[in-house]
Amino acid sequence: LLFNLYNDIPTLFTLALGPVNLKGRSFLTLKDFNSDEIKHLLWVAGDLKHRIKHEKQYLPLLQGKSIAMIFEKRSTRTRMSTETGFSLLGGHPCFLTSQDIHLGVNESSTDTARVLSGLSDIVLARVYSHTTLEELVKDASIPIINGLSDLYHPIQILADFLTLQEHYGSLSGLTVSWIGDGNNVLHSFMMTAAKLGVHLRVATPKGYDPDSSIIQEAQRLSKQHGTQFLLTSDPVEAARGSNVLVTDTWVSMGQEEEKKQRIKDFLGYQITMQTGSVAKPDWTFLHCLPRKQEEVDDQVFYSPRSLVFPEAENRKWTIMVN
């Protein structure tokens, strides 16, 4: 929606990229977006942030538009960033939990997609199964945004890369080290890093590897874009020479029964200053939140190296361009 209108206002910054066509497209995974398209999304997010936060401009670009927000899984950042971001652009967010609608239970995904297509202009869905999103896309006549699924979390990765772009000035040539679970957030990093010229080093415990098909695609992208991609089970090896250390929860929603075993299996994966001692002198830390202390200690989490709170804020500015 935003891209239909954004070119009508004067630009504050220039962007030397090839032509992009984002009009009317759904946003399920960054696998579906090329380098220029991802860079354009980041550029518009940064431009909006500058205009609204720093220049105090009022940009009701989505006035009269509404977004249906389907939440099968709770979230602080996804809900707040979507509601505040859409409202800042003049639109109306509608929050829907599994208690509010009948998605896939008393009403099929097909029927829900068709109903919401007539009542709203865009849908953001935070779901358990990625298949649910694919079903919505198949039957909806409006764009569908992935607010999180078991396979990908693309809106988080845009916020992460906007944060790193602001901090380092450029993304190309950075090395990001993921130390933790082979989960949906990592999958989105793997579908994006190489396209931005970012090297990716991944350490996961044995048995918690990322999806094999996503590994193959990440390897292909790395070769195509001339970046490095490392998979290991050694956190120190992954952290060595890195600019950015990243982790996430070890126990996602729906995995509570596995908590004791997972904490045992992830022993040695906590990010500490000792982990950072093998990284580059300017290393920083990211975590998409909520955070548990076994994943990263307080000394790192609350240090000047930690970018987690600017990262959380940037969820608002990047969700605006989805």
From TrEMBL:
Question: Does this entry carry the keyword Protein biosynthesis?
Answer: no
Q: Which UniProt keywords apply?
A: Amino-acid biosynthesis, Arginine biosynthesis, Mitochondrion, Transferase, Transit peptide, Urea cycle
Q: In which pathway does it act?
A: Nitrogen metabolism; urea cycle; L-citrulline from L-ornithine and carbamoyl phosphate: step 1/1
Q: What cellular-component terms does GO give this entry? A: mitochondrial matrix
Query: Where would I find the Aspartate/ornithine carbamoyltransferase Asp/Orn-binding domain in this sequence?
Result: 173-320
Identify the residues that the record assigns to the Aspartate/ornithine carbamoyltransferase carbamoyl-P binding domain, covering every copy.
25-166
Q: What is this protein called?
A: ornithine carbamoyltransferase
Upper lineage? Eukaryota, Metazoa, Chordata, Craniata, Vertebrata
The gene designation is: OTC
